Amino acid sequence: MKTIATTLLMSALASTTLFGAGAAVNALKVSNDINTISYASALWNKATFSPVFLYPQTTIRMNDKKANEMNAHNHAKKAMVAAVYNDHNIAFMIRWPDATINVQKGESTTTYADGFAVQFASRVDDPNKLPYIGMGSQGRPVVVHLQKVAKDIYEPDGHGEVAYQVNRNQTDLFGKALQAFDKKVQSLGSSDYERSFISEGFRSMTEIKDGSNNSYARIRYLKKDHAWEGTLTRALKDEYVNLNAPAIPVAFAVWDGEKMGRDGLKHLSAWVSVKLQGKQGGEALISALDGTLVGDPKAGKRAVAANGCAGCHQMTAEDAPNILGPSLRNIGGYSTAGYLKESLLNPSAAIVPGYNRNAHSAYPWYTVNNGKRVSAMTDYSWLDQKTQNDIVAYLQTLKAEVK
Amino acid sequence: MSKRQLAMVMDLNKCIGCQTCTVACKTQWTNRNGREYMYWNNVETYPGTGYPKNWMDLGGGFDAAGDLQPGVIPNLESDYGVPWDYNYDALAGGASFEPNVEPTWGPNWDEDEGEGIFPQDNYFFYLPRICNHCTNPGCLSACPRDAIFKREEDGVVLVDLDRCQGYRYCIAGCPYKKIYFNPKISKSEKCILCFPRVEQGLPPACAQQCVGRIRFVGFLDDEESQVYKLVHKYKVALGLRSDYGTQPNVYYVPPTESPVKFDANGKIIEGSDRIPVAELEKLFGPEVHDAIKTLKSEMAKRKETGESELMDLLIAYQHADMFRLDNTYYQQVAKEKGLNPLAPVDTRYIAGKYTKTGHSMNFTHAAEPTAGGHH
Q1: What is the distance between the alpha carbons of residues A273 and A22, in angstroms, rounded to a whole number?
Q2: Rounded CA gap, B212 and B235, in Å?
Q3: Which 3 state secondary structure label does DSSP give A332?
């Protein structure tokens, strides 16, 4: 299996053109039980691996000085993604390059874990108005499944076993009883860092802890290939998302612990279309996410200059970071054309709250009016259609090189 | 800004560096489960390296425009020091007395070193530090998960461990480096101002146990409180490094009473002061000059007339004279919110929109979302 997967990793774009339906990833219908499928399953040999490009998240600059220095010149990564589904579940496998293994071992204040996340949109009524990538947006929640490579992470309340929260030296135990105490404490740790979240905009992400969102994720490192391989399987339908559709938008993110990756310090894809093979339809979503563009990027670049976008936004890595608005230097990597156009015409539709208003009090990116966020950006709906499309086409070219 | 604000005033003239506060805090909160290296309360020698090492140079806080500044997350081995223990059990078997890890650094490693040349002009003083429970907390501003909150009823800054994901931006954002990463639970933790004690009308453990009686605790809006009088009425208690822009709520009475210096021949230099005012100005801002003036004049007044409210306050004849807390107030707050009076009062994320079970059964349904926060 390993060899086959490696070959597929090498063969880059070939696989997508092979199936040709235009979707970025094609999910294979299987009859097997995939409830607890892992990377070891032979089913992946039958599935098709397609490239998904992951771009360094640069929209928001975090306040970690060292991490910012380490991540200042990140390139994009090429991941290979495959999917299988049956009547109840859908499973994804993602392989992405990472030169080092980084495990959070519970001993250090400055180590960070490698990991990956798969994201689903909870509402897909309009493929041009998907939730904001990463954290979702107001009224458009996303569900995120996260798997990190961590060892022995304890719950703060010791899974409710408060008696085992005391210092061993302060117990009245000794000898074998104390050893048993230590063992019990050890057993309260968890070596699997798999979590599910729901999020409806930056800062609102909340862990789903009530078991209403079942998933199963596994991860392993392929030393020979210097790559991680992660699988996630989850229900096609639960109370948060309905993936039982001809085509669905899915997004992927990976973290590199070596570069202090966590939270926003990650590589992420745009919404990519996943076609559930054998189901009819889904063309609108697929063409919205993977269709070709009508605009002229060169004219778009001129329009961007003429309209003073760079006054608030950082456009390329060479520009000075601008704190007045989100950085757009990788926006072409993780945004869909639909999102870019919507943001141009109606900036308040999906706001990247970015800096906490407390953290950036002099120049807020948005104000809050009756509980609704209102962007500080001018709306550009007065531009003619062609210019709008040109600007979107230009913005889609803004992204880091793949390496 | 919270509706009310608890504050602590520490009189540095009275601190003897005995670390009783440190021990009181440690045995209460941080001697277990990944908190071993944390000192929610530490007493460092100033001038000195501090804890964590050189914390004043590690960034965080705000610039003049109100923008959060990037910071550095200290390393356990090199900046905090790995806590060590001894092989007491093995001693009975004849083993030699050894630490379990090679001690390289700790919270009071450079205690009593100070600066200057002995005996002419060497000097140091003790600087006890806890979380400042800032009005504009750097940690809160840095958190991308809205996991840190400031309690409306008393301004105590707390971490919601249910929301915390262990990203550690809060540590970079805090200019005092008084929020710590617990590697065992992969979440950030910090001084909670002993809120379970405070809610029962008891002072925080560090203040309760203070041998030198240097710590005053109360509400800043209570004009009868010691903290109000020291901070607002006499203006002798000042925030530490207020230039970081976080508006700290732990205040210090600057150390004004230091011995005189000697000249090269060992003669007393009359009117001299070992602690350079410039150092105090660096820590407590330009207001330190007025504070020193007030302290000196009140001391003189006391000597001449026998009367000085400020001196009486600072002396703290009775232990209870240092605190003005109010458990009825907390019971009132709990009653208004329909909560168990013992419960920490944060209603934002409990029984949330997407999580059916909250992290405490004492909480009721979430209150109205705050602006720019969770939805």
Answers
A1: 9
A2: 21
A3: helix
For B335-365, what is each residue's pLDDT tens digit? Answer: 888 877 665 544 443 333 333 443 333 333 3
Quote the Cα angle for B35-B38-B43, to 5°: 150
CA A169, chain centre distance (Å): 43
Q: Are A153 and B184 an interchain contact pair (Cβ–Cβ within 8 Å)?
A: yes
Mutate to test the interface with A, among B51, B76, B89, B375 (most CBs of A within 10 A): B375
Round to whole Å and give the CA distance between B253 and B40.
Answer: 21
Chain B partners within 8 Å of A204 (Cβ): 146, 373-375
- Cα B177 to Cα B76: distance, rounded to the nearest angstrom: 13
A208–B168 CB contact, under 8 Å:
no
> What is chain A's Cα-based Rg?
22
From the centroid of its chain, how far is CA B348? 26
CA of B322: how far to CAs of B9, B210, B309, B313, B325, in Å?
9, 11, 14, 8, 10
What's the CA gap between B334 and B340, in Å, rounded?
6
> Taking CB atoms and an 8 Å limit, are B184 and A240 in contact across chains?
no
The yes-or-no verdict on residue A122 having pLDDT over 60 is yes
**Which of B80, B186, B246, B356 has the highest number of chain A CBs within 10 A, making it the mutation to test binding with A?**
B186
Q: What are phi and psi of B76, to 5 degrees?
A: -60, -50
Residue of B165, B221, B245, B154 lying closest to B193 (CA atoms): B154
Supply φ then ψ for residue A222, to 5 degrees.
Answer: -100, 100
How many other CB atoms sit within 10 Å of the CB of residue B59? 23
The DSSP element (H or E) to which A44 belongs, if any, is helix A43-46
| Assigned token pair, A359 | 């953290």
**Residue range B14-26, pLDDT digits in tens:** 999 999 999 999 9
Question: Burial letters for A68-88: b for 16+ Cβ neighbours within 10 Å, e otherwise?
Answer: bebbeebebbbbbbbbbbbee
HSE on the CB side for B222, CA within 13 Å? 17
Rounded to whole angstroms, the Cα distance separating B281 from B16 reads: 22
Residues 6+ apart with CB under 8 A from B52: B58, B74, B79, B80, B177
- Per DSSP, the three-state class of A93 is strand
Q: Which of A191, A169, A194, A193 has the alpha carbon at shortest distance from A182? A: A169
Distance CA B8, CA B217 (A): 5
Pairing of strands A25-29, A77-85: parallel
Minimal-distance CA residue of chain A relative to B356: A210
- The ipTM estimated for the assembled molecules is 0.89
**Cβ contacts of B171 on chain A, cutoff 8 Å:** 109
CB atoms A358 and B136 under 8 Å: yes
Phi, psi of A17 (to 5 degrees): -65, -30
Of chain A residues 1-60, which have a CB less than 8 A from chain B?
none
Model pLDDT for residues B276-316, shown as the tens digit of each residue: 999 999 999 999 999 999 999 999 999 999 999 999 999 99
What Rg value do the Cα atoms of chain B yield, rounded? 22
pLDDT tens for residues B183-224? 999 999 999 999 988 888 889 999 999 999 999 999 999 999
CA distance A147 to chain B (A): 13
A159 in contact with B at a CB cutoff of 8 Å? no
- For residue A381, give the 3-state DSSP assignment: coil
